[in-house]
Every structure is written in C-alpha cells, then in structure tokens.
Amino acid sequence: MSLRRTFLVEPGSRVRLDAIDASDTGNHGSEDEAQATIAEDLARLTKLQYRLYAENERSLLIVLQAPDAGGKDGTVRHVFGALNPQGASVHAFKVPTAEEAAHDFLWRIHAATPGRGRITIFNRSHYEDVLVTRVHHAVPKETIEKRFDRINEFEKNLVQAGTLILKFYLHISPDEQLRRFEARLEDPRKQWKISDADYAERAYWDDYRKAFEDALERTSTRRAPWFVIPANHKWFRNLAVARIVTDALDDLGMKYPKPSVDLKEMQRKYHDAAAAAKS
Fold first, then answer.
1. How many CB atoms neighbour CB 165 within 10 A?
2. Are 213 and 16 in contact, with CB atoms under 8 Å apart?
3. What are the pLDDT tens digits along the chain (279 aa)?
4. What is the pTM of this model?
5. What is the set of domains in the chain, with CATH numbers?
6. Which of 22, 84, 103, 145 could lock 232 by a disulfide, CB 3.0 to 4.6 Å apart?
7. Can you tell me the distance from the alpha carbon of 32 to that of 200, in angstroms, rounded to the nearest whole number?
C-alpha cells in the first residue's frame, strides 16, 4: 500500500491521534536503509519542480502543522531544501500583526499562496485560527465553526484555480516532545528556540490533540487531503513527506510546453553562428 493511502485522513472519517503510533516506520527498518530512498525521492522532487515551473499551469501548496518541536522546521530543511528557491518559498505564520488582525483571518493567508509554476510551504498556517484560538478560548465556539466552513471553501477555490494542496500533520508523542525540548536545552545552537511558553503549552496537550482531531476530520477532503505522518523518527518523517509529495506531483501528468520557436530555424542559426565563429 502506498504511503499516501496509509497516512491519508479519509474524508468523513474519525481521527484518534492517541491510537496512531507516532513511532511507526512502516516496513523501513532503519535510517541507514531509508537514506537511499529519501535521496531518490528528493532527486525526483527537483525534476518535478522544474516541470511544474515549465508547464506554468498549476501550483503546489504544502501545509505543515504539528505540536511544538514536531518537526516543521526540520521538514522544510531536509525535504523542501531540495527545491530551487527561485520557484519556492516558505511562509511561517506567527501571531497576526495589527494590520493582519484588522482583516479577516484568511486575508494574510491568501496573499501568500503560490502563483502558477511555484511551490509554497506553510510552516503553520490558517489552521492556527481553529487550533490555538480554540484551545485558549480566544474566539467564540460559533466563530470556530464558521471558520471551518470558510477554510474548506478557501481551499476549494485554490484547487479550482489550479493549486494542488497537500496538508501534513506531523504526529509526535508527548514523551518525544519532552526529549526534543531537552535536546534543545543541551545544544547551544538550539537553546534560542526554547521558551517558557513551550512548557506552559504542554499543559494543554489533550486540548490540542482534540482540536487537531477536529480540524483533521472537518477539513480533510478529496481536493485538499490531510496526512497524519508518524514523526517520532525524523528520518521516517522525511521519507514519508517526500514520497507523498513526489507521488502526488507525478500523478498530475505534467508536460513540458511546446517550443515557441521553429527549432529547425534555430538550429540553422546556431550552425551559422558556429561557422562564423571559426572563420
């Protein structure tokens, strides 16, 4: 069974994250064994990105959501770092600015979506507005309900305009999160990433789990599916995301556009120019 099928949140299905093994690695035994597979898929990804750019008819939007220390930054670095930056961008959505907060919650999101031929990765996204706001009761429950409808309509519009949307929830266990916090405390290169809020938010783990489950159930659609990726093992997270993205791009059947010039005439001009250079 393909990884897309294995980790897909089927539209209309119930999601129970605590029943999903965050340490699952499928039939991949070790990181060493998986490295060749990851390298192959990243090579495919670069070729598919070039085809997407050349075709210039569609775009790709990747949405990454996860608990704190869930691996969003690592996925961007180790998977999407293979992309040509001329045709790709990453947007990290933090607390809205005063200007952003003065508009509807999707205003800043829509402005960051990819144009034709481009790939955009959302490191956190519009889903923060049905997750953090729900857990901390920042908006009424009725507002959250309406936002689900607006998100589905927003993503439907993007798909109809030619955007492929793939959404990934990076699933880690609370014990793994604590280990990653400890690793950050011990690594001088990562100590800047630790804050009091990281530990304070752990008190809301179950609330966030329920909020994520609700979001996955309410917004995984055929046109914009969610995938729950077991992410305790970073190497398997990278493998799974890379494979799902490349398989989905492959299925688009993208084609290079036909030349806009007469190739025979161009060849004649080349040979004339080459002959003149030798004389």
1. 21
2. yes
3. 699 999 999 999 999 999 999 999 988 888 998 999 999 999 999 999 999 999 999 999 999 999 999 999 999 999 999 999 999 999 999 889 999 999 999 999 999 999 999 999 999 999 999 999 999 999 999 999 999 999 999 999 999 999 999 999 999 999 999 999 999 999 888 888 888 888 889 999 999 999 999 999 999 999 999 999 999 999 999 999 999 999 999 999 999 988 878 778 888 888 888 888 887
4. 0.93
5. 3-278 (3.40.50.300)
6. 22
7. 36
